[in-house]
Specification:
64% of the residues lie in helices and 6% in strands. With 107 residues, it is mostly helical. The chain has a single domain, classed as Arc Repressor Mutant, subunit A, CATH 1.10.10.10. Strands 1-2 form a two-stranded antiparallel sheet. A hairpin with a 6-residue loop joins β1 and β2.
Length: 107
């Protein structure tokens, strides 16, 4: 994407690969470690920059980062995996994400 700094591009790719692997987003400590940042304040600046550019959205809770255009597929895959595993906690989690998504609280 045009206009991103190198660190912003690294963050976008890290979030994408983390969500693809784990089916949920990384927390700020994990981002700081992965990008070699000394503090969470550096992560906050990077995240806020990507939110302002429309690359990421963030909710109010932990692990609430979503790549724009990536979240619906991620939610559906996570829900499908939870249903297949019959994990009631995971099913409840992804059902709540789906409700939030449909109500416009998540991207």
């Amino acid at each position: 994407m045009k206009g991103l700094t190198q660190k912003q591009a690294e963050l976008r790719e890290f979030v994408r690969s983390y969500i693809d692997k784990n089916k949920f987003s990384p927390n700020y400590t994990e981002i700081a470690d992965a990008l070699g940042l000394a503090s969470k304040s550096g992560v906050v600046r990077l995240v806020d920059g990507l939110v302002a550019r429309g690359v990421l959205t963030k909710g109010t809770g932990g692990r609430s980062l979503e790549l724009v255009g990536h979240s619906a597929e991620t939610h559906l895959r996570g829900l499908l995996m939870a249903v297949r595993s019959k994990d009631q906690d995971a099913i409840k989690h992804f059902a709540n994400l789906a409700d939030a998504f449909l109500e416009g609280r998540a991207a």
